UniProtKB/TrEMBL annotation:
Protein name (database record): Clathrin/coatomer adaptor adaptin-like N-terminal domain-containing protein
Key word DNA damage present: yes
Pfam family, one: PDS5
Major subcellular location class: nucleus
Keywords: Cell cycle, Cell division, DNA damage, DNA repair, Mitosis, Nucleus
Localisation: Nucleus
Cellular component terms (Gene Ontology): chromatin; nucleus
GO biological process: cell division; DNA repair; homologous recombination; mitotic sister chromatid cohesion
Xref: InterPro entries: ARM-like (IPR011989), ARM-type_fold (IPR016024), Pds5 (IPR039776)
Protein source organism: Genlisea aurea
Amino acid sequence: DVNMAARRMAGNVIQKCAGKLEPSIKQFLLSSMSGDYKNPPHEISYHGVLYNVFLYAPQIVSGVVPYLTGELLSDKLDVRLKAVGLVGSLVSLPGSTKSEVFKPVFLEFLKRLSDRAAEVRMCVLEHFRTYLLQNSSQSEEAHQIISALSERFLDYDENVRKQVVSVVCDVACHSLTSIPMEIVKLLSERLRDKSLLVKKYTLQRLADIYRASCFIEAIKSDDYGWIVGKVLRCFYDKDFRSDAIELILSVSLYPPQFSVKERVKRWVRVFSGFEKVEVKALEKILEQKQRLQQEMQKFISLQQLSQVAPSSSI
C-alpha cells in the first residue's frame, strides 16, 4: 500500500531527525491546539500528526500530550470526540499508558466513560474493548478500566448499557480470567434491565461466557454453573418466550463439538447447584417439551389414520 509505505518512510525520517524536527513539530501542534495557527495547510489534521509522531518518536510530543486533557474537557462535543478518538488510539499503543506524562491524560480519558454525551461514552467503550483485547489483564490500567466499565452497567442510555455488556463479554470470552467473577455476576443483573434490548442481549452473551468456560480445563465445570441457573430463572420473566429459553439451553450453552455424553455430564454437575426456583423452571420447561412431543405424536397418528381410512373402505 502506497500510503503505508509513505507513512513508514516519514516515520523513519522522524526517528532519525528527531532532534532537528522537534521544535517545528511542537510549534505546529501547540499552535494548532490553541487555535493560533494561521492559514494551516489543507487537509492536515494535527490529531493525525500527533498520533504518527507519537508512534515513531514519542519523546518529541511528550510536552504536547498533556494539552489533550483540555480537549477531553472541552464543552464542544466535536472537540471531545476528536480528542477521545486520538487518546483512545494512543492508549492502545504498547507502553503508552506506562508513561508518566501520559498518565494524567489516561485518567481523564477514563472519566469520559461518564461523559454527558452518549456518543463520547460509546467511543471510549470501543477503544477500551481494543485495549483489553490486546493487553494483559493484569496491568494496573486494565484493572482501572474493568472497574470503570462495571460502573457503567447502570448507564441511563440503553445502547451504552448494551455496549458495556458487549465489551465485558468479548473480553471474558477472549480470556476468561481477565474479568473477575464478581464483575460477570454484576453483568448478569442486566437480565433484569428495564430495556428488553439489553435483557435479550445479556442472555445470549452470558451463554457465550458459559460456553467459553467449557474449553478451559483449569476451571471447574461448576464455577460458571450459576449462569445456567440465571438462564432458567428467565423462564418466569414475561419478556422472555419459553422457546427462546429452551433454545439457549439446548443450543447456545455448549460448544457444537461437545458430545451428548459431555453435555449430560455437565448438566448433572450444574444441576446439583440449582436453587429450588431454578429446578422448578427446568421441570416446567421439560413438561412443556414433553407435552409438545405427545401432541405431535397424536397429530402424526391422526395423519396416518386419515391416509389409511380411504384405502380400507374400497
